[in-house]
Amino acid sequence: MAKPSRLPALHTLLYFEAAARHLNFTAAAAELGSTQPTVSLRVGQLESELGVPLFTRRHRGVSLTADGARLFEAVRQGLELIGEVTGEILARRRQPLLTLATDFGFAAYWLMPRLPALREEMPELEVRIITSQQAIDLRDEVIDVAIAFGEGHWPGCVAEKLLPESVVPVCSPSFLAASGWRRETIPWAEVPLLHLERPTPARWMDWPDWFQRHRLPDHHPGHDLTFNNYPLVLQAAMSGQGVALGWLPLVQDLLAGGQLVSLVDAPITTPRGYFLVLRESTRLTGVIGRFRRWAREVCANGAQEQAGPGGTSA
Fold first, then answer.
1. Which CATH number fits domain 10-94: 3.90.1170.30, 3.30.1330.30, 1.10.10.10, 1.10.150.130?
2. H helices of 143-259, where?
3. Any idea where the domains of the chain sit in the sequence?
4. Chain centroid to CA 265: how far?
5. Under CATH, which number does the domain 100-313 receive?
6. pTM to 2 decimals?
7. Which candidate among 51, 74, 135, 208 keeps its CA 20 to 30 Å from the CA of 21?
8. What residues have CB less than 8 Å from 172, skipping those under 6 apart?
9. Distance of alpha carbon 246 from alpha carbon 267, whole angstroms
10. Is the separation of the CB atoms in 142 and 236 below 8 Å?
11. Are 163 and 274 in contact (CB under 8 A)?
12. What are the CA-CA distances from residue 95 to residues 135, 190, 196, 296 (Å)?
């Protein structure tokens, strides 16, 4: 489609649209807070610019020419679309919006199943979720709050631990059954492992850490797989591709539902974990304060439900 060389001035189109809708220059002037001569002048300027008459002037009013009718329909549709879009923008500004940043695993396996509960608690809230496997930087002004994994230190921010790093090896029930292994005598050096790509510097437990903490022999990778986001790691585990490290806050529902089984009784727990992170300047009022209270309560309830098995501290 060819791009028009120049559009008529918007104010002349507004005068034209009102005059065409009322088919009366005086009524158009009253609506626009103007005068009848000004409306007549603006319409005349538009007709001169286009080189065609847009109205047929009669003693008792005006009517649209064929070109005028075509232009009126185009301007009417354009103004209606502009009105709809600006209305949506204003409605979003009036509706509370919370922009939350977190990683792929937390969003998929903890937050998504609990969004209905959040909507029930805060039905007026619109939530925008930003996900990344990289370290989250709250200097990005778009982000209101983050649920980030780490040791609790983010420059210029305050962090409150919601969930600890508590890790167990997990696999699908069918994988465990096909292997013929007993949980007490698993040949860990031969197990096909599923890895989450390790960042530099390391921010979470990986398989070498887990082997070292359990004082197990070195693993000899042969059929290992490495992925760059945690949902893919868990999908591979559920499809029987090997054994993954399961962060209990994220895999608890999968364990309870039978999609995964744990290969040890006691998880390893470290000082790291998922933290609710806010800029130091953030005020704990409005939707941010309410979301913080909701997240703390839900995580506390979940921790009580998981309090059965003991853990091994790092």
1. 1.10.10.10
2. 173-179, 207-213, 230-238, 248-257
3. 10-94, 100-313
4. 35
5. 3.40.190.290
6. 0.65
7. 51
8. 237, 238, 239, 240, 259, 260, 261
9. 9
10. no
11. yes
12. 29, 55, 38, 24
Residue where the block lists tokens 């990289």: 134
For the chain, 314 residues long, give each residue's pLDDT as a single digit of tens: 445 557 888 889 999 999 999 999 999 999 999 999 999 999 999 999 999 999 998 877 899 999 999 999 999 999 999 988 887 777 666 667 889 999 999 999 999 999 999 989 888 888 889 998 777 777 766 788 999 999 998 888 899 999 999 999 999 999 999 988 888 788 888 899 999 988 777 788 899 889 888 888 776 667 899 998 899 999 999 999 999 999 998 999 999 999 999 999 889 999 999 999 998 888 887 888 999 999 999 998 876 555 333 333 34
Instruction: Assess contact for 278 and 157: CB atoms under 8 A.
Output: yes
Q: Dig out the tokens for 7 from the structure.
A: 């559009």
Parallel, antiparallel or unpaired: strands 243-247 and 312-313: unpaired
26 token code pair: 């005086």
3, two tokens = 């791009």
Q: How far is CA 168 from CA 68, 248, 267, 273, 309, in A?
A: 74, 7, 5, 14, 12
CA distance linking residue 110 with residue 148, whole number of Å: 13
